[in-house]
Amino acid sequence: MNPMDLKTLCGPDGFYPDNIWDLIVGQDPERRRVDRAIKGIVVANSRYDAVFSLLQNTLVCAGGGRESDCFVICGPSGIGKSTVLDTFERQYGGPFKTKKGDLRPVLRVNTPPRPDLGSFYSAMLEKMGAGDLVSRNVNGMMSAVRAQLKIQQTRVLILDEFTHVVEDKTEYFTKKVVRELKGFISERVCDVVCVGTEKMIQIPDLYEQIQRRQGEGELVLLAFDYQNDEDRQEWLDWMADVGALLPIPPADPLNGQRVAKQFHFASNGLPNSVMKLLLLASLYAMEMGDDQLRQEHFWQGFESGGSLFARRLSDRKLDWTIRNPFDEPKTKRRRRVRVIQTDSAPDVSDASYLSGSPSKRNVSFSK
Questions:
Q1: CA distance linking residue 233 with residue 323, whole number of Å
Q2: Do 205 and 87 share a domain, yes or no?
Q3: Spatial distance between the Cα atoms of 80 and 363, rounded to a whole number of angstroms
Q4: Beta strand 70-74 pairing with 218-220
Q5: Helices and strands counted in the chain (H then E)
Q6: Is the peptide bond before 95 cis (omega within 30 degrees of 0)?
Q7: Tens of pLDDT along 82-116?
Q8: Domain around 211
Q9: Predicted structure pTM score
Q10: Strands (E), 166-301
């Protein structure tokens, strides 16, 4: 048994790989087990079902010669938008290989940061497996995107991180993008779902288009409100389900009134933040050799999380003064020295351990 030598992760060019942290995690079987187990935890609630149903109904109703629709799904970062999109894309995105070629009923594209129309269309072509059609000719790429959407029989186009269109660009550019989306809708190419933060409501043209076509074409996701009886009960139920699935069990039930309220305060009512805190706490407990999660582990997880749990006051300002709601340990403990067998350098091209195994349960995010 030898200590892990991080130098074995360094490439011949002298640089470490971009995913060095994931490789470090993968070097340690215990850490890898805990990391994968927590990242694979998914727990359903009514909001998840509502969003998934909206996407599913959009897919079923799309096409058939009817006029296309546009929808908006928005909410704060950490609410769980990407997780439900992951599930939906994994189930319906394909590509499904047929004799006529690859079909993608659902196309999910991440909007590039500080996008222009060129990068916008490039991202779509790359996601459709048509990267050879990317060029400097924006109009040519626009035509190629429309053609590929029809060839691949795409029924629903999901534009994730669409807030970049509002936050990173001018109003003039935002209107240009909205006009492009209106073209997709009026030409009945496919239905469009835009996903991002609440700032997307600032897109007036898109908002009017949704109101005109759908009446209620937006779904706004909010954090759990602990002062609301229904939200509080759902939070308690969700915490209980999560606690039952943790690889290192909590000493006290997570749905106990005090613990549940502590986690709500720490996460600001955002389920993804709870899962990040639990991951950090579990890794710390593992390093200390503890077989149960206690207040000191939660406290340390919050401390090491840093900006993960800071409150956003504005676009560019975070409130770092949020106090740690968990009980600070009275004495400092030394982390145990752990050794890992590393007979050879890992194959950095093999990142199969990075994705957790699919769960039969659904991820939760708040009302």
A1: 25
A2: yes
A3: 8
A4: parallel
A5: 13, 9
A6: yes
A7: 889 999 999 999 899 999 899 999 999 999 888 88
A8: 62-220
A9: 0.76
A10: 191-196, 218-220
